Amino acid sequence: MKKTILSSIIILFFFSFPHSALAQDGQRVKYNFNPDWKYFVGDPEGAEATNFNDASWKSVTLPRAWNEDEAFKKDIHNLTTGVAWYRKEFKLPVDAEEKKVFLEFEGVRQGGEFYVNGKHIGRHENGAMAVGFDVTDLIKLAPAVNVVAVRTDSDWDYREKSTKTKFQWSDRNFNANYGGIPKNVFLHLTDKLYQTLPLYSNLGTTGVYIYANEIDIPNKTAIVHAESQVRNQYKEAKTFQYEVVVKDMEGREVKRFEGNTTTISPGQTTIVKASAELEGLHFWSWGYGYLYDVHTILKIDGRPLDEVETTTGFRKTDFKYGMVYLNDRVIQVKGYAQRTSNEWPAIGMSVPAWLSDYSNQLMVESNANLVRWMHITPWKQDVESADRVGLMQAMPAGDAEGDVKGRRWEQRVELMRDAIIYNRNNPSVIFYESGNDNISEEHMQEMKDLRDHYDPHGGRAVGSREMLDSEVAEYGGEMLYINKSADQPMWATEYSRDEGLRKYWDEFTPPYHKDGEGPLYKGNDASAYNRNQDSHAKENIIRWFDYWRERPGTGKRVSSGGVNIIFSDSNTHFRGEESYRRSGETDPMRIPKDGFFAHQVMWDGWVNIEKPRTHLMGHWNYEPGTIKDIYAVSNGE
Fold first, then answer.
1. Which of 12, 89, 166, 251 has the most CB atoms in a 10 Å sphere around its CB?
2. Nearest-angstrom CA–CA distance, 609 and 593
3. Where are the beta strands (DSSP E) in 106-220?
4. For residues 36 and 62, what is the distance between their CA atoms, to the nearest angstrom?
5. How many CB atoms lie within 10 A of CB 58?
6. Residues 575-594 as b or e (16 or more Cβ within 10 Å = b)
7. pLDDT digits over 304-330, tens only?
């Protein structure tokens, strides 16, 4: 809490201080634009106007979904939806004259209409990905006050305004509806000669791309490449140098290199490149989130005009012989199919970054090596968190169940395009998931073409759930069953769907819940969705054994693993007694269940067991005289 308050004070200081708010030499600055917003649930007329009276509106710091306090209080179907407005007043630094001004919203839910100083600047409707706006011509310089206003609409049945088409992933089963602005907002100030932002929606720009090839794991070397999309919005041509500085996690410079000198015409956009061999590299890996800061700099006559810092990591992947390779080593997929909302009780998805790290680090501590975010592109905060904790990711765009056609498919392609551009520098993203079910070969090729155009060197496989007989997909796997392959990897995308509540430890512990006891689900027996902890953990062990038995090294055709649905209990579709899904290995507060420790034992090692472990299920506080079976989970001989 103290850290959050201090950050807010610093940002306010930057926006009101009359001297040198910009970086040295007038380079770009990225401001945290989260503090000092107001919101109102409803649709008052004229709320976009600069002189609108918002004195009675609630003051908040973003990110803030206006209905976040309903998380786990209401089931997903009954979360409150509708229109809400957000407004913010701000002043630019006094030395912002002649600068470009951009706004970056990491996402709104579902649709958003955006205004600056009463003028409509654009619309964003996919409810999942980031969007950017060039507001240079609308912003007033200091000491004038500017107003940004956003009208959000989170109606479950929201439809794209231009086509009246509903987005497939706006779904009441799995996409918990936390409405408004539940993600971060930033303001960027740049020179008129600048590297663009990776915000294709609205801006149509692709930003910076960092990648490595000729990776030599034993000798710790690679050729590192930097590519920047550069735009000149001066009225005259500019000749500039492109410089790259790579720094390690301790901030030490490990390499400095340059590209060719470039002359760019007024209004022109171009790609500039530079590359060099780096030695002594630390490669990003499972449980080892080693990251580098790559600074790409535009200089004129030796003076920096624009500098972008990209945090990334370097690793080597391959997908062959039915197996996944990370840094020349086979790794069997072991992890979770986690709801993208990744939410917490009473605050929903809008948590501070340290809490994302805590949650995602717990996955790694359970010996998971991959998280498959379900149905919708994850929030940038979770993507970056997985980088830091060393957790591989399968990144979807947006879907529900099954293939679609026409405008609905186009919406999926556009979302995947935006997501690839936004997240292609994040080393933890290993798979691009094109669908939560089979898609046509034509559609799969379209997704691969996106990857090849925007991320040709990232070392990522494109596939989807199912796709068992595909000649195009680079990975696949059914939802619940064992698939083996000697070609593209096959891993189960969401096995072990049973549910168990953490407070039901076993039948011998208060509140003495009988295993499986609970209401019917759609008129059918639901005992598998009303398990106690011990029963749920035993079922997880039984399910995983099938994948372990067919693991890499056991034959020519092997299973490359699978992901358990889900990691933490989620405010989404459920079949058990409670109003939320309880398939997690932790409860919503990330307090582990027995299944968490069972996975620690089962999932030890990249493929085979590397560290002997044993976990005794249950506890040591039973009433005197209790006689019960004690189950031990062990990977030892």
1. 166
2. 22
3. 111-116, 119-124, 131-134, 146-153, 180-181, 185-190, 193-195, 208-216
4. 8
5. 12
6. bbbbebbbbbbbbbebebbb
7. 999 999 999 999 999 999 999 999 999
